Amino acid sequence: MPIVIIIAIITFIAYIILGLGIGNSLMVFVTILVVACPCSLGLATPLAMVISEGLCAENGIVVKKSEILENASKINTIVFDKTGTLTYGKLRISKIYNYSKLKDDEIIQLAGSIESKSTHPIGKAFIDYMEENNITKLQVQNFENIPGHGIIGEIETQKMILGNSKIVSKYNIENKYTKEEQNLAIQGNSIIYVIKNNKIIALIGVNDIIRESTKQVIEKLNKKEIETIMLTGDNKDTAKKIGDELGITKVIANVLPKEKSEIIKELKLKNKYVMMCGDGINDSPALANANIGVSVKSGTDIAMDSSDVILTKNDLQSILQLIDISEKTVRNIKQNLFWAFFYNSLMIPIAIGILKPIGIAINPMWASLAMVFSSLTVILNALRLKKIVKLIS
Fold first, then answer.
1. Selected catalytic residue, list 81, 208, 283, 315
2. Are residues 74 and 100 in the same domain?
3. What is the overall mean pLDDT for the chain?
């Protein structure tokens, strides 16, 4: 605007000096201001963003901030949580190693009663098993969640500890069952140690199902040269098996919630533009620290609150759609800005009167009409986004 105003003033003064009169000078001054009206420039970005936000909503992608649609095109690293994100999070108990005199159902009753207090998807696997087998829940007292390790509670004054191998080490409990743990992990199970009064009484394998579209999504991300990383608190062998199956380039296992957030920060320090995709309470710090945090609708409330994007279809294909929409939006904005500047570069010299010697001149009325066509060009180009994105969806 300052440049346009300066050009208009200089032209006005030049016309007076050339003796063309106040009327003509004022006419040219107003014509320049009208023809260079920045409506098209003002529409170029917000119009494309509004259309893209609508397209995201149609495809089940809730974008909380407009800048996400610009920044998603910059993503070069995507970090995935495993349970509930890469997998459905509908875990099933697949194997029980019983090291006590209790029956398997009694083991599940003790463990399931404690797990029923947890919000982790593993807890749901125990609840489902108990409901299917008509096992009643016991009263639990002094329940405590230990992030990244497991859970603790008391049943009839007996202390129960459930969790992964880290919780066994944390409480210095003797573990003679590492071989069975490894066997379960190789089969893709998450491992739950059941500890009663500081003694391991059972080892339970819990299996999950990989989301149908996950492998295709990872393949397409790899083709786009976007690094994919699995970040999980699960056993290393279990994580590696799933990572290999999906084609994920890097697997980081046995990670505590705090460590997830630190890993995201480390990636950003390496000039990585990071998207974190998770669903649980443990993922919320990492989601908040990523350049773009993405949560699935089936995730916890705190995960969705911490994220920038929510996938309401619970389908990781939506990540590809988000990136594609972002790329097309940024390209469209650049096109809009080009045409807006091109129009001004073309019309301002005509408004000044450079082409008057060959009989081409415009007045404020024609300038206002030309300005409308400039804005219309930007609007029509922005509306093209709808067709472009439907083609890639």
1. 81
2. no
3. 84
Q: Fill in the DSSP letter of residue 161.
A: E
User: Is the whole model's pTM more than 0.90, yes or no?
Assistant: no
**Domain match, 104 and 155 both:** yes
Radius of gyration of the chain (CA): 31
- The residues, ordered by sequence, that sit 6+ positions from 20 with a Cβ below 8 Å of its Cβ are none
In a domain, 54, yes or no: no
Domain that holds residue 352: 2-45+329-392
Distance between CA atoms of 231 and 217, rounded to whole angstroms?
Answer: 17
Tens digits of per-residue pLDDT, 28-48?
A: 787 777 777 766 667 778 888
- What does each C-alpha distance from 374 to 329, 330, 382 come to in angstroms? 19, 20, 13
- Is 308 an annotated catalytic residue? no
Residue 229: CATH number of its domain:
3.40.50.1000
What does each C-alpha distance from 306 to 114, 181, 282, 287 come to in angstroms? 27, 34, 11, 6
pLDDT, position 105: 92
Average pLDDT over residues 153-182: 90
Using alpha carbons, list the distances in angstroms from residue 69 to 34, 72, 322.
32, 6, 8
